[in-house]
């Protein structure tokens, strides 16, 4: 039953994700992957939806809204430029310490997150295709996997950053 449901919903999901992805600033494959995960979780918990096409459309829009909210919230730090050419030794030492703290936190992540995050942080600037090949996972699952890993990393670093901010 669930295999037939997944097969029948695939074209609709592809179309809906393609239509919504541009507005979210994400890849359609990442949006599809997130909705497939939601559907599989739903099938496991509650069984198939009574109106699968309607459920799928609502799930795509909901996931799209979640992605837009996340994108609005996440902003790069303005005080940490990529070019260290004119920085003082003190700034360079602090940047190196932050890098070590980040790598230490990455090593404490669960599952395959440490390998994924190391590949993303690699100075070789690997493409998603190269990372997927290196990790042995599908390229389409990298975006959702990266989001989960970043969420874990955020939760892991938040207490450390908050504790450091209280000193002084």
Please tell me about this protein's structure.
The protein is mostly helical. 74% of the residues lie in helices and 0% in strands. Helix 1 (2-24) crosses helix 2. The model has no long low-confidence stretch (mean pLDDT 82).
Head-to-tail CA distance between termini: 61 Å
Rg, alpha carbons:
19 Å
- Listing every helix as H and every strand as E from the N terminus to the C terminus, the arrangement reads HHHHHHH
Helicity level, as a percent range?
over 70%
Low-confidence stretches: none
Can you tag this structure with a few keywords?
168 residues; mainly alpha; elongated
Please write out the topology.
Blueprint: H1 2-24, H2 28-46, H3 52-73, H4 89-107, H5 113-121, H6 128-135, H7 142-165
Helix pairs in contact: 1-2, 1-3, 2-3, 5-7
Quick gist of this model?
With 168 residues, the protein is mostly helical.
